[in-house]
Specification:
With 361 residues, the chain is α/β, with parallel strands linked by helices. It has eleven helices and 13 strands. The chain is 40% helix and 16% strand. Helix 9 links the parallel strand 9 and strand 10. Helix 1 (25-45) packs across helix 2 (89-103), helix 2 packs parallel to helix 11 (313-330) and helix 8 (243-256) packs across helix 9.
Length: 361
Amino acid sequence: MVQHKEGSVITKHRKLSTFLGRTPRGTIMGAFCALLIVLLAACAGGSTSPSYSSSSSTTAGGGSLSGGTDISGKTLLFQIQSSPSDSFFVPVVNGAKAAAAIAGLKLQIQYASNDDTTEVNQVNTAVASNVAGVALSIPDAGLNKAVCDARAKSIPVVAFNINGSTGAGAKCVMGFVGQDFVQSGALIAQKMIDAGQIKPGDHAFCPVEFPAQVYAAQRYAGVKQALSAIGVTCEELGTGVDFGPAKATMVSYLLGHPNTTAIIGLGHTPLDQAPAAAKQVGRNIPIGGFDVTSDILSSIKSGTITATVDQQPYVQGFQSVMQLALYLKYAIAPSNLNTSNGALIDKNNVDKVVSLVPTYR
């Protein structure tokens, strides 16, 4: 999802065991074959989008999982904190749909457009309608009560992408499928240090969409962990998710801070726009960061961006839905799965990824 040099600030993490290791053998083969069909279709079609609908509700057939409880036709809420226009979640949704098809489940897909109140209301409505399970991205503790209300009705809950639940709310989330943000922050910073692009005494710029959200705070902590070890400072600044305003914010910062020697974008919006911002102010400085867009990959190919840490969002959608399916069908408890354990994209592997964006990567 890169081997690290000894002495790196990256600490070794234990590999998380996947759910397949404890699934009945016949089920493993059935799920594997169905998934293989999906992957072969992806290879044959290149960047062609899957045939399933992008509507807010999807209906699967009987599924290919055998034995256990019959879950065919049951509905899961798939709740996204962002908006339908956010390209990051395209592969997330596609992964969720693929898993639902294997399990014979229906998906009720909802978008909260980055508004906690909207997300709480959407979750509460789904819980009141007795959905079979909830997979959701949790930006902060504002979802604690809604998540625990679902568990109080024995509805299983798995978080994906972000788990900002706290206290009692955190105990109501049965598993998390997403990135280890601190580890990933240290990973990209160390990559740029090892490449000789960030040196002792430098000052880096760390723009991010929403500084207060969990992903931003933890990525920033990981980046600072690596940079502070060699005496480098890094300043964080919010950009929002819209590309135009984000670029303008970064241009303004670079003009006001001519001592900036590198940019580490802590989200896909600032990383996507960082090359254009640097070019506008006439600065040729190293750039690295997080996530995948077509422009980010093009910038890696051209050498403008050194590397990006890939969350592998398709896995986040697929595994969160599949974990709920396995819990409902076989009572297999959901687990925490790190979808970005060293998953760097740089000039050495970028060509393998380009044709898969945005459907699968």
